[in-house]
DNA sequence: ACAAAAGCTGACCAAAGTGTCAACTTACTG
DNA sequence: CAGTAAGTTGACACTTTGGTCAGCTTTTGT
């Protein structure tokens, strides 16, 4: 019986919770918190509504579980801004990683945007503080680069907002972005072109001209 | 009785429709289409629900009326990219005007964002085409500037998306932007600083170095 | 002054929503 | 393999929602 240790009941629970969260991400992203009906999540996850309530006791509980799940995967894409890199490389990597993340996690990205637009009602204080801390650390690195003459004196906070905005836009506002590019849908190569244009433009804008 | 000519019935209708639309903008922006309850719009506009239905026959009709109203005010802020200007001036004006518009029309801006994130379900084909046409015209101007050596060869479509993203972000994601700037709320001077950072960074990124 | 048009609204429905529950089946454990 | 814990679910209770309507009041043109 040795490695039966894989908690079989946990497996069922795990699988169903995953199904519910996956369906929830899609639907919350498209409809927002108030617009989402639990029955719709149940249908999309292939479970009866009552079964959804067996795992989650309310709509809010599903939603906050999703937000937590989403923030967990966030940090990874943002680790490139560190003082031991050269600015050009750091920003290039950051921009690519961020665009890559949003492209591969469309629904999560939109859900997060939706939550913010709707007033960040369910984003925990702790989570906001965590994001602020990361920003502060990045800002400090950029200030170091500026002091070292490796970067022009650009306001680091507005710079990061600009990067955040530019890299999120394609996923969040895909219909608009596609229209702007005269395409029916965005493809990987569009994200690549975006990364190139953003990186090259911004880098020329923040690096000392040689 | 002379100048009673100001169509008195029109006045009542006008006023109430305006109240409903104003309340609708706020609530649709915060809750999205599916999340908005007509009773809430009625309360916010100080009218009984049945009175709202006297002017609009459905939720969708209110919503699309708002979208139309919003797009009408859109074009104005985007008129600065024209071939008879120098790129630097044109982009500076464009960025300022766009930020200004979003700051002064927070709810509209968020409502539009909400509509796009939710899949642009109620944005009419005609309206999307109109926006595409404007973009095409701007792209042509930029291509002219590039051909004339007044700008570096930057992909104009991605450039406009970058500008769009950067200038919308502060209004749409105010809580995030405020956190990023370490402020409780955004003020006019933050929008000014944003305009400066965006304009100066982007301009260095797209103008030939002299 | 007065009829017609416009505006107003409480009360009402059918449909859809959230959340509950008791009874059933399946899975695991000793 | 019996007993218990976990999982499943149709049916139900209660609330909210979009939308209607008949009859009321106000405004307006003449």
The end-to-end distance of chain A, rounded to whole angstroms, is: 68 Å
Number of strands of chain A: 0
SSE run of chain A: HHHHHHHHHH
Give the low-confidence spans of chain A: 1-6
Q: Name the pair of protein chains with the most residues at their interface, and give those residue counts.
A: A-B, 59 and 59 residues
Q: Characterize the quaternary organization of these chains.
A: homodimer
Number of domains of chain A: 2
Number of helices of chain A: 10
Structural class call of chain A reads mainly alpha
Class of the largest domain in chain A, according to the CATH hierarchy? Mainly Alpha
Structure description:
- The structure is a homodimer.
- Chain A has ten helices and no strands.
- Chain A is mostly helical.
- Chain A folds into two domains: about 1-55, Homeodomain-like (Arc Repressor Mutant, subunit A, Orthogonal Bundle), CATH 1.10.10.60; about 65-205, Tetracycline Repressor, domain 2, CATH 1.10.357.
- In chain A, α8 (about 155-170) crosses α9.
- The first copy, chain A, starts with 7 loop residues before the first helix and ends with a helix.
- The relative contact order of chain A is 0.10.
- The interface between A and B is large, with 59 and 59 residues.
- The structure holds a DNA duplex (30 and 30 nucleotides).
């Amino acid at each position: 019986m040795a490695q039966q240790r894989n908690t079989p009941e946990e497996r069922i629970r795990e699988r169903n919770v995953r199904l519910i969260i996956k369906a929830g991400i899609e639907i919350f992203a498209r409809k927002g918190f108030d617009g989402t009906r639990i029955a719709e999540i149940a249908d999309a996850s292939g479970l009866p509504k009552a079964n959804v309530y067996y795992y989650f006791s309310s709509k809010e509980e599903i939603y906050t579980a999703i937000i937590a799940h989403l923030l967990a995967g966030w940090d990874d894409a943002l680790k490139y801004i560190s003082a031991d890199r050269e600015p050009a490389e750091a920003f290039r990597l950051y921009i690519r990683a961020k665009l890559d993340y949003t492209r591969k996690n469309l629904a999560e990205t939109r859900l997060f945007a939706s939550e913010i637009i709707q007033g960040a009602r369910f984003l925990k204080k702790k989570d906001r503080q965590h994001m602020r801390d990361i920003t502060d650390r990045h800002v400090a690195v950029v200030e170091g680069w500026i002091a070292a003459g490796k970067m022009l004196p650009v306001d680091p906070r507005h710079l990061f907002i600009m990067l955040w905005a530019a890299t999120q836009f394609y996923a969040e506002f895909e219909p608009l972005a596609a229209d702007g590019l005269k395409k029916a849908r965005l493809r990987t190569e569009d994200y690549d072109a975006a990364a190139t244009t953003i990186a090259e433009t911004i880098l020329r804008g923040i690096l000392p001209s040689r």
